[in-house]
Amino acid sequence: MRVLNVITQSFLVGAVAALIFAAAPAAASAQDVSTTTVTHGAPTVETAVRNARVVYVEGNDLVLKLENGKVEHLVVPDSDRFTIDGKVVSVRGLKPGTKLTQTITTTTTPRYVNTVRTIKGRVWHVNAPSTVIVSLPGGGNQIYNVPSHAKFFVDGKEKTVFDLRKGMNFEATIVTDEPQTLVAQTKLVVGQAPPPPTPPLVGVLLFQRPAPAPTPEGSVTAEHAWVRLPQTASPLPVIGLAGLLLLATSFGLKLARNKGTL
Length: 262
Description:
The chain has 262 residues and is mainly β. Among the domains are: 15-42 and 111-179, no CATH class; 45-109 and 184-192, CATH 2.40.50. The chain has helices at residues 15-18, 236-261; strands at residues 32-40, 44-58, 61-66, 71-75, 82-84, 87-89, 99-127, 131-135, 141-145, 151-154, 157-159, 169-192. Strands 1, 2, 3, 4, 5, 6, 7, 8, 9, 10, 11 and 12 form a twelve-stranded mixed beta sheet that branches. Strand 10 (151-154) and strand 11 (157-159) form a beta hairpin. The longest helix has 26 residues, at 236-261. The relative contact order is 0.19. Mean pLDDT is 74; it is low at 1-30.
């Protein structure tokens, strides 16, 4: 999962004051001294959670349906990572139907930058109130932008830019306070892959039955009990009926023989 560290700065109250020259030459470095201190404030942490479901994914294009019903299209770089069922995958490893949960943790830390700068030189030209051209001891001239609150010290006395004159040796101290805000953001995306699809039905639908348990020798299973039903009927009525038929036949033959003799 990719971790994004984004630093945004509330630029910068007093930044112009901190950078009052355009480009100082190397010879001026000995006459241009800066001291900077940084103080950090107490950080604040915010956590936000978003739930979504993958609707479509193709290459780096990802379409999500958010929990509020809105559809969102994203172009996700290959460096982003998602943890799906414990496995880390890129956007190309996502599948439609995957449920995603994104946790965004934002840490905001205020800090204050205090800069004290000292410049020494000789006035070569003044264009009050915005600029002054200074001849540096190491040689060469340098143009400085003068902030409105800048103070110059000439012979131990505090002066403004309007008091400067050509040829004056001066010392200038610039103090700036720069409030800044550092924002660090981490994103963690975890998800659950969709269940495997049900295979399509092909041909005749059959249902598999479990195999019957083995039975002891000589016993009869319920499935075949009809083959070996107990014989409860008696053959005596059939025998009696056959005897009656034989008697009737004999009696009929006797009658026929008597008629023949008459």
